[in-house]
Amino acid sequence: MLTAEDKKLIQQIWGKLGGAEEEIGADALWRMFHSYPPTKTYFPHFDLSQGSDQIRGHGKKVVTALSNAIKNMDNLSQALSELSNLHAYNLRVDPVNFKAGRGWGWGMGTEFEDRDWNGGTGSRGWGMETEGQGFLSQCLQVTLATRLGKEYSPEVHSAVDKFMSAVASVLAEKYR
């Protein structure tokens, strides 16, 4: 459960990123593809080179969705309803991909079941890992820490983890 302090920390830190959504998302995705090479197989239609239009575009979508969720932290279900519907009914992403174990996982399922959520050919959805943090989650945390330095404190890291766990839960709601 997010505390008032968690929400405040998330909003403050996210506010420092304004206008850099594409850059942050692209960096996190690029890190994921290069730190966890098997993830590349789920984006066969992407140019996976650093700074490609596809990585930048998808990265922006991921961070924009997170920004919307942050603006609506008190009503995540409503804020993410359309995205949850997309995954459950259109893309038919296996709900096991949304289970969060320790921490959150906007990354790969335990069997590398993550897919691009942009609706392109072969796209399936955002995967949530079942044990440990997801690959994209880890890479996003590194991107944020690199960009924000000392401002990305352990307290901020913890708040972001809690928030992403809540997001994962909402994305799996339509399967219940």
UniProtKB/TrEMBL annotation:
Domain Globin: 1-176
Highest rank taxon of the organism: Eukaryota
An example molecular function term from Gene Ontology annotations: heme binding
PROSITE patterns: GLOBIN (PS01033)
One Gene Ontology cellular component annotation held by this UniProt entry: hemoglobin complex
UniProt xrefs under SUPFAM superfamilies: Globin-like
GO biological process annotation, one example: hydrogen peroxide catabolic process
Entry keyword set: Heme, Iron, Metal-binding, Oxygen transport, Transport
Function: Involved in oxygen transport from the lung to the various peripheral tissues.
Cross-referenced PANTHER family: HEMOGLOBIN FAMILY MEMBER (PTHR11442), HEMOGLOBIN SUBUNIT ZETA (PTHR11442:SF41)
Family: Belongs to the globin family.
Assembly: Heterotetramer of two alpha-D chains and two beta chains.
Protein name: Globin domain-containing protein
